[in-house]
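Q: Convert this sequence to structure tokens.
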Amino acid sequence: MRSLVLAFVLALSPLPNLPQIPHGSEIRVVSPDLLTVYVVWQVEQRNLVLQSKLAAPANREVRVLFRVDGGYRPPYNGITTPSGDVVLLVQGERISLGELLSRTYRLNLPNGRVLPEVR
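A:
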């Protein structure tokens, strides 16, 4: 039960070292060696605009990079899912990147997708 509560609290909290994701920021999903870029989103107002996409195989280890205010934050480790989401590993807990971006940072996901709790 404690683990479930911790996972819920983490899903509603900003990531460590990333209190906000302002307009003009960039989010990249890349390979662990940082050489293959799978997805790039640009933050425009509160919308995530897809800049490029290369299909990442499911269950692949990836890094998620955030460029905020002209500089990159330390990468966050994650695993791709069959649905196209990335599950981040934060403080020993698994958190959906899509859920985190829409619930915590209040960003609209591409193609108008947004979690029901946001609207």
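Residues 4-11, 115-119 have pLDDT under 50 and may be disordered.
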